[in-house]
Amino acid sequence: MKTPSRLLLVGPLPPDLARQLEACFDCVPLWTQPDRQAFLQSHAGQFVGGVTMSRHGADAQVLACLKGSVLSCFGVGFDGIDMAAARQQQVAVSHTPDVLTDCVADLGFALLLATARQLVAADRFVQRGDWLRSSYPLATRVSGKRLGVVGLGRIGQAMAKRAQGFDMPVRYHARRPRPLATQTFEPDLLALAKWCDFLVLCCVGGLSTQHLVNSQVLQALGPTGILINISRGSVVDEAALAHALSAGHIAGAGLDVLQNEPAVPDALRHNERVLVTPHIAASTRETRHAMEQLVVDNLMSFLRSGAVLTPVPFSGLAA
Ligand code: 8YV
């Protein structure tokens, strides 16, 4: 039987969000159950809804347990959520788009600037006292260079908007052209990589984009090209990236996401031309707060009206 206030928490949540939910619901943590599968089966239909994060996702067992209710996800990425199962079980799935767009694009641009201008390595140079002995080597100009955007959704568009301020021509690759986009659509990713100086990944994760950036794309980007990834680690073939960097096929990479977070392959971690941040694109106090509020608002909206405010779309390349 459905308990009016029982809420399934798929994985640990940010403390402020957990506190907010605990004030309104009887929150049941899934990750502490000794037998996950047995728990989900025996509690099927007993929850008013569930909450997850992009990084926890939700598999078919969770969605079967939530049949006919709601799953509110903290994060815009839904590649970890089995959407086919959600459809089958008629679970309304929401995520947190829009509120994180600016911060993710800000970090994307920060990575782009920092990788091209070698900010971290330059700071280390000063800290080591090397400035007293020599000048820092020349870096790569950003202003006026060409930006290739993969996935022209909200975040891709926000990157393009920032690029305008740096006088950068922008082209984009997506599954299909965006009707209102002012930038040139490039249906061939290889051609885009060949054209641009910076290739920024803003697309969704999951099977549809797995290893989209492979050794051919990296070779096309070329020895002065820089790759920026603010989408999902799965979009890049990391072995191919490590090889491209060591062979000089590309100049550098700025990565906020990796395939097996928080593990970072040694070849990427110990490389001065690679800048890695620990998946922090949306991690500002202001954005996290807005995301938390949207998770709660989606849940409450579904419980009140049967519809969430920001439903997950069922297809598309852009996040
Ligand atoms: C989130 C993200 O903060 O929203 C997403 O999809 O990747 C991040 O920006 C994180 O996923 C929360 O789990």
Give the secondary structure arrangement, pairings included.
Layout: E1 6-9, H1 15-24, E2 26-29, H2 36-42, E3 49-53, H3 60-65, E4 70-74, H4 83-88, E5 92-94, H5 101-116, H6 119-127, E6 147-150, H7 154-164, E7 170-173, E8 184-185, H8 189-195, E9 198-201, H9 215-221, E10 226-229, H10 238-246, E11 252-255, H11 266-269, E12 274-276, H12 285-305
Parallel strand pairs: 1-2, 1-3, 3-4, 4-5, 6-7, 6-9, 7-8, 9-10, 10-11, 11-12
Bound molecules: 2-keto-D-gluconic acid.
The string of secondary-structure elements, in order, is EHEHEHEHEHHEHEEHEHEHEHEH
Q: Which ranges are low-confidence, i.e. pLDDT below 50, for 5 or more consecutive residues?
A: none
CATH architecture of the largest domain: 3-Layer(aba) Sandwich
Q: Strand content of the residues, in percent?
A: 5-15%
For the record, the CATH class of the largest domain is: Alpha Beta
Determine the structural class based on helices, strands and strand pairing: alpha/beta
